[in-house]
User: What shape does this take?
Amino acid sequence: MVQYRTQTKIIADILATARDMNTAGDGVGITLLLRRGNVSYTRMSKLISDLVGAGLLVELNLEKNSKYKISDKGLSFLRAYNQFEDFAQSFGLRL
Assistant: This one.
């Protein structure tokens, strides 16, 4: 049986990518988020817009493109999500 990711899991994957792949400190591009998030461009654009609006991602406007960094609020969300995921898995549940 195919296991589909929930919307919350996809958001956690996007935030984790923005946190982990921002090695230079100047944010990550949408292409990297698309590859790691494994969703369509249209869906990713909507998710990024929602995450920026919620204050979980910060949009950095550069010359020709935008890059994204995880915010402090995004880090808090990711920590809470990971704790809850570990808790659920300890009971044999999958999120």
